[in-house]
């Protein structure tokens, strides 16, 4: 049973009140957040208000929904009405959205108890959470290591049991990579499955919101709740693939699980071995493993960085110091005001990506970079479509290595970009991917693997993830922190 | 080849200031990233032009008047406002 079902049972059988449960989470946050830096804003008063509503419902004998009264957290790029939403950037400090992101609209109507907003790389640009203007979030397995990024705060909080679940966003791996580093579950849904309305944009053709949880059941429950059609997102399709939770624990005998050689080559030995061991587990469950080549993958990373930075340079044009957020204090003329505001408000990595994006879109370079990258995006999509003619699921490492030590990522941008090599192809092709833990390295740091499915086949990959979780529970290890349910 | 002038030019287009002392370092770092991006030029160009993901396309609707936010609410986040408008001073 996952954390969500457990909490639901505790509440409905009156083992504890929602207020008591919420208070124990707030207490643990207070105790450990100094060291973890997972939360950047704790919203205790609002959480207790919602808890009181849920307790009243329970006391009056009303039925409560599965997510009702369950504490949770949101990455700080998801808009929350009246609650500061900063993207962990100086440029948005003090910004209080006047509307909710659709995902938070859905969950808050179900009386989800939001404990607070969690840390992230500034504007979701980073792989270690260290580009946050609040400093990075620590890894619950070893606080000398990073939590990963960009949704590092959510992963740190869930891994440390100071939130049962959270929502993050994934543009090039930002849900799956920190889930992998923190030994938990992260689902990046199909592009279009979850509304992006109210998600502060980084790269709109790649961004997608999804759950970060301790177990596969939890990810499935949360995904089913948030995957709804929304007319405020022009690329919304909603729940095309249908409910996933009822399909967990389906037999996978005869399923074809594909491994692309390009995904396995070049990753560290401990990661490679853990993924190949997982393949053996699937074989023992009756699945067939098929190997194939996916040569287009070698272009995925530059294609990703060109497209993501191009879109970011356009999306981040809105920060001008006029309508919201930070504004410089001394300037001469409006051009000077906007340049100073942006130069003082954005961090180094954000500026680097805006400049790169502007470069690849500028006259003379557009054809060689942006247009070529878009063309290759089509090639990569086609390559995945071909691969899925011979298999149902693709099994791959989530990250070529385990969590790096604090401070390591900052020194070399290209080396840091390379860590996204296994996750970005999924965003380029708009596919669903789930990362689950599949082992530990010699130092005890978690290793993650991802299961990639056809578009809108979340049910297939979550079922396969669930089967693995049942067969190899030793890889889903708890940490010393937080609330023990 | 990324030059100092390229970086100055794209910084202007991006409305960002690059301090003189950071210009050489940034030019070099941009060059490294562009070299990395250049690896796609070895890729065979195919006819698989990209036009959408998952057959998604823009959904159009009738242009109907619906309730929106009050300007008072929207202006709450503005660094400066006056007479129900965003205020932009020419100098400060």
CATH topology of chain A: Amidase signature (AS) enzymes
> What's the architecture of chain A, going by CATH?
Alpha-Beta Complex
SS-based class of chain B: mainly alpha
Strand content of chain A: 5-15%
**Element order of chain A: H for helix, E for strand:** HHEHEHEEEHEHEEHEHHEHHHHEHHEEH
The description of the largest β-sheet of chain B is: 2 strands, antiparallel
Question: What composes the largest sheet of chain A?
Answer: 11 strands, mixed
- Helix coverage percent of residues of chain B? 25-40%
Instruction: Estimate what percentage of residues of chain B fall within beta strands.
Output: under 5%
Mean pLDDT of chain A: 96
* DSSP strand count of chain B: 2
> What do we call the CATH homologous superfamily of chain A?
Amidase signature (AS) domain
Q: How would the global form of chain A be characterised?
A: globular
Strand order of the largest sheet of chain B: 1-2
Describe this structure in words.
- The complex is a heterodimer of chains A (485) and B (92).
- Chain A has 485 residues and is an alpha/beta fold.
- Chain A has helices at residues 3-12, 18-36, 44-59, 102-109, 152-159, 176-181, 216-226, 261-264, 269-284, 300-315, 334-345, 348-361, 367-387, 413-418, 424-429, 458-471, and strands at residues 39-42, 71-75, 113-118, 138-139, 142-146, 165-169, 185-188, 209-213, 256-260, 288-292, 393-397, 433-440, 446-452.
- In chain A, helix 2 runs antiparallel to helix 3, helix 10 (300-315) packs across helix 12 (348-361) and helix 10 crosses helix 13 (367-387).
- The longest helix of chain A has 21 residues, at 367-387.
- Chain A is globular and about 65 Å long.
- The model of chain A has no long low-confidence stretch (mean pLDDT 96).
- Helices cover 36% and strands 4% of the residues of chain B.
- In chain B, helix 1 packs across helix 2.
- The longest helix of chain B has 18 residues, at 20-37.
- The interface between A and B is large, with 73 and 50 residues.
């Amino acid at each position: 049973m996952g954390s969500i079902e457990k909490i639901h049972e505790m509440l409905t059988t009156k083992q504890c009140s929602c207020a008591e449960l919420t208070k124990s989470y707030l207490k643990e946050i207070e105790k450990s957040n100094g060291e973890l830096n997972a939360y950047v804003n704790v919203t205790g008063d609002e959480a207790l208000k919602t808890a009181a509503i849920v307790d009243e419902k329970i006391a009056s004998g009303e039925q409560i929904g599965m997510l009702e009264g369950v504490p949770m957290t949101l990455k700080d790029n998801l808009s929350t009405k009246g609650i500061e939403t900063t993207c962990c950037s100086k440029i948005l400090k003090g910004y209080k959205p006047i509307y909710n992101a659709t995902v938070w609209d859905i969950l808050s109507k179900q009386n989800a108890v939001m404990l607070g907003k969690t840390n992230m790389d500034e504007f979701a640009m980073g792989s270690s959470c260290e580009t946050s203007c609040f400093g990075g979030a620590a890894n619950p397995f070893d606080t000398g290591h990073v939590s990963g990024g960009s949704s590092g705060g959510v992963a740190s909080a869930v891994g440390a049991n100071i939130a049962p679940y959270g929502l993050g966003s994934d543009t090039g791996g930002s849900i799956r990579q920190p889930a992998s580093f923190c030994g938990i579950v992260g689902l990046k849904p199909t592009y279009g499955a979850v509304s992006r309305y109210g998600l502060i944009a980084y790269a709109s053709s790649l961004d997608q919101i999804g759950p970060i949880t301790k177990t596969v059941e939890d990810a499935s429950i949360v995904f089913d709740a948030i995957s709804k059609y929304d007319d405020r997102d022009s690329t919304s399709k909603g729940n095309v693939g249908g409910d996933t939770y009822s399909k967990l624990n389906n037999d996978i005998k005869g399923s074809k699980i594909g491994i692309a050689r390009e995904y396995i080559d070049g990753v560290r030995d401990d990661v490679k071995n853990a993924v190949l061991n997982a393949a053996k587990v699937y074989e023992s469950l009756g699945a067939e493993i098929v190997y194939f080549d996916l040569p287009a993958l070698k272009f995925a990373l530059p294609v990703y960085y060109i497209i993501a930075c191009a879109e970011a340079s356009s999306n981040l044009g809105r920060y001008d110091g006029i309508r919201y957020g930070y504004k410089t204090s001394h300037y001469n003329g409006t051009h000077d005001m906007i340049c100073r505001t942006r130069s003082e408000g954005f961090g180094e990595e954000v500026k680097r990506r805006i400049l790169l994006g502007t470069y690849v879109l500028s006259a003379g370079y557009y054809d060689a970079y942006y247009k070529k990258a878009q063309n290759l995006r089509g090639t990569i999509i086609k390559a995945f479509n071909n691969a899925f003619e011979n298999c149902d699921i693709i099994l791959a490492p989530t990250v070529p290595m385990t969590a790096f030590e604090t401070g390591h990522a900052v020194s070399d941008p290209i080396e840091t970009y390379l860590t996204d090599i296994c996750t970005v192809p999924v965003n380029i092709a708009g596919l669903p991917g789930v990362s689950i833990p599949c082992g530990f390295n010699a130092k005890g740091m978690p290793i993650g693997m991802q299961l990639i499915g056809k578009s809108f086949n979340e049910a297939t990959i979550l079922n396969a993830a669930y089967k693995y979780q049942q067969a190899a529970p030793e890889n889903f290890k708890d940490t010393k922190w937080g609330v023990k349910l | 080849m990324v030059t100092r002038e390229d970086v100055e030019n794209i910084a202007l287009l991006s409305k960002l200031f690059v301090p003189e002392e950071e210009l050489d370092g940034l030019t070099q770092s941009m060059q490294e990233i562009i070299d990395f991006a250049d690896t796609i030029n070895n890729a065979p160009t195919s006819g698989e032009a990209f036009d959408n993901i998952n057959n998604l396309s823009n959904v159009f609707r009738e242009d109907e008047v619906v309730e929106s936010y009050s300007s008072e609410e929207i202006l709450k986040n503005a660094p400066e406002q006056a007479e129900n408008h965003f205020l932009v001073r020419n100098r400060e």
